[in-house]
């Protein structure tokens, strides 16, 4: 992965903070930054849904530091932001169903934690703050593809939390003159995405089911669609948002996806063929809060950030399955 760099500056000159750095997307960003010799990378994570295992390969780097801490504590946020040039804020409690079951925890991490990080970054005068938003903010808007300026009403507490983040980010950019860019991720997948727990995403669940020869659950009829996006493309968006020379990108929000629509049934069939498996899906009632169709218009990120997602869903699923297969074999042999 990351065979080509997405930046053309010397990363060695800068100090980066990746919150949620022991999580799926955060650890992939850390991997990229270390591969291209960033001056210093700090990962802040409370390990609530992330794993120490995800950062073990980085601990041998002299320029990597892991801080186990909570973004709900302002002092922790201010401490890790000291002398940092760039913040990539990924820490949050993901999952629509989790937020329906436990909206208070989602709000605490995703809204209180978010404003703590923003204010800490402002106090420490960081150069640029990039944060993870979500396609869930499009809510009940039937518009397809989803363009950044056409939103409906949110369908879950998770979607509300991400929309509130975007509103705070806009206000901090205007009131304090901060450079802040939001990235609305659309169903990101790849190595290190967790297949465990009740809120695991479909791709790691299907892959693990194929490895264990079990029949996974599909909620609804499987005809719901998503713009599944390999994590390397999401890392590209983060790096391009950090180093763009386009000043108009401050206070902007961009869709991060590939711009292709795949139904869950199609996805399941691709995974079966990648895995050489003939498992069958068990269909269950659809879950509240889930949107039916999702497809991104990525033209804004293309023109303003130079974002050019190069990894297709099939290629990404191949890489991801190989990774899960190795993990599975290592666990079985231990
Ligand atoms: N994966 C996707 O498809 C997707 C889609 C849309 C948006 N997002 C957003 O992208 C970001 C990263 O998601 P991910 O898929 O890597 O999830 P993840 O759960 O793997 O990573 C989130 C990390 O944040 C950490 N964290 C949670 N609460 C924290 C707290 N209070 N203090 C410190 N650390 C905390 C977790 O331990 C975890 O390591 C999140 O903001 C998520 O909402 C992800």
How many helix segments? 10
Number of domain modules: 1
Per DSSP E runs of 2 or more residues, the count of β-strands stands at 13
Percent of residues in helices:
25-40%
Average pLDDT works out at 96
The biggest sheet, with number of strands, parallel, antiparallel or mixed sense and barrel status, is:
7 strands, parallel
CATH class: Alpha Beta
* CATH homology superfamily: NAD(P)-binding Rossmann-like Domain
Round the Cα radius of gyration to an integer and report it: 19 Å
Based on the coordinates given, report the CATH architecture: 3-Layer(aba) Sandwich
Outline type: globular
**What ligand species are in this complex?**
nicotinamide-adenine-dinucleotide
Order of the strands making up the biggest sheet: 3-2-1-4-5-6-11
- Structural class label: alpha/beta
What's the CATH topology label?
Rossmann fold
Q: How far is the N terminus from the C terminus? A: 26 Å
Order of SSEs: EHEEHEHHEHEEHEEEHEEHEHH
């Amino acid at each position: 992965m990351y065979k080509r760099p997405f930046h053309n500056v010397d990363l060695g000159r800068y100090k980066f903070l990746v919150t949620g750095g022991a999580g799926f997307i955060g650890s992939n960003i850390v991997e990229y930054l270390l591969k291209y010799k960033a001056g210093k990378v700090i990962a802040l994570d409370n390990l609530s849904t992330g794993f120490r295992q995800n950062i073990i390969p980085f601990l041998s780097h002299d320029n990597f530091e892991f801080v186990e801490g909570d973004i709900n504590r302002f002092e922790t946020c201010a401490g890790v932001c000291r002398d940092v040039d760039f913040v990539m804020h990924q820490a949050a409690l993901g999952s629509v169903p989790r937020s329906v079951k436990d909206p208070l925890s989602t709000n605490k991490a995703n809204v209180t934690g978010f404003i703590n990080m923003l204010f800490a970054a402002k106090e420490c005068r960081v150069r640029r703050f990039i944060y993870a938003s979500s396609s869930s903010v499009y809510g009940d808007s039937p518009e397809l593809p989803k363009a950044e300026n056409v939103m409906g009403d949110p369908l879950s507490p998770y979607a509300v939390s991400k929309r509130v983040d975007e509103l705070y980010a806009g206000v901090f950019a205007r009131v304090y003159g901060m450079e802040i860019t939001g990235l609305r991720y659309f169903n990101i997948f790849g190595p290190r995405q967790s297949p465990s727990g009740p809120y695991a995403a479909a791709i790691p669940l299907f892959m693990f089911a194929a490895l264990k020869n079990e029949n996974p659950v599909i909620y609804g009829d499987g005809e719901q669609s998503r713009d599944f996006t390999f994590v390397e493309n999401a890392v590209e968006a983060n790096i391009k948002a950090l180093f763009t020379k386009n000043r108009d990108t401050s206070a902007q929000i961009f869709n991060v996806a590939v711009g292709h629509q795949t139904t869950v049934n199609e996805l399941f069939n691709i995974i079966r063929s990648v895995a050489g498996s003939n498992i069958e899906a068990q269909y269950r009632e659809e879950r509240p809060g889930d949107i039916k169709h999702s497809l991104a218009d990525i033209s804004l990120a293309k023109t303003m950030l130079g974002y050019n997602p190069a990894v297709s869903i099939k290629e990404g699923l191949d890489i991801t399955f190989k990774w899960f297969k190795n993990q599975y074999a290592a666990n079985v042999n231990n």
